[in-house]
Structure prediction request, 156 residues.
Amino acid sequence: MSPRTARAAMLARRFVVHELRALHSLALWVLRRRHQVSDGALAVSYTGPQTAMMYGLLFVSVIETVMPALVIPWPLVDTVLLVVDAYGVLLILALHASCVVRPHVVGSDGYGALFDLSSNGIGDPRSGTLVCGFLQSGDREGPTAIGMPSTLLTAR
Prediction:
């Protein structure tokens, strides 16, 4: 097997694994489950800001699926495009589902993908202000990460 063929085979294998993981995430989303979130862990969702964009993309894809049926007069071509477009719509749903069922996770031991920020290095912190993706309240110890950044404060 030549190096070019081996690389193509590796890329095809990675593509198939990606598709299967996305479809697995879609199944988890339908069943309302999460991927590897243990008991006592803090799961922080990051899909809020992107949900409207994903549903907008889904709407446009559905329109793109329906329109060739009105424009293309050949039934065979129309059927092939319908199957390909329907699979594309399924993958858009699977992409959104993978973001929903695979949140950022902070374990019960406090370690994970999120940081514990203290208010010592932040000028004029206000209770409930989101800074760098973390909720700064000053009343809690440990990770308090929820949401996306909405306010930038200057460091002292």
